[in-house]
Amino acid sequence: MVAVTRRAVLSLAAVAPRLRAQVSTFQSRATVSLVQGEDRRQNVCNALLAIDDLIRPTLKRKKYVLIKPNTVAVNNQLGSTHVDAVRGILDYLSERYRGPVVIADSSKDCTWDAYENFLYNRVLAEYRPLKISFVDFNEDPSPLVHEIVDRDLHLTQVRLASRLFDPEAYILGCAILKAHDNVVATLSVKNLVMAAPLHNARSATSKWHDKARYHQGYRQIQMNIALTAKRMRPFWGATVIDGFEGMEGEGPLRGTPVPSRLAIASTDFVAADRIGVETMGVNPAWPGYLQYCCDAGLGQYDLAKIDVRGSAALSDVRRTYKLHPRVDKQIEWLGPLSKV
Question: Out of 180, 214, 294, 324, which could bridge 301 as a Cys pair, Cβ 3.0 to 4.6 Å?
Answer without folding.
Answer: 294
